[in-house]
Amino acid sequence: MVEAGGYSLQALGLSQWLLNGLPYLLTLLILTLGATESMRKRMGAPRYLGVPYVREERS
Fold it and tell me: Closest Cα to residue 30, out of 12, 48, 43?
């Protein structure tokens, strides 16, 4: 089924190297959208996920 879609898109004039890279581009897009703050809240991710930890000075 995926090959058939590839052939159809190739017939429309899209190059083969673009079609080969499409899964990687879609993965980057999904990861970028998932990294937004609103999406992390919706997914229930921890509040301080991705915030660097700064250790306090010991007294």
Answer: 43
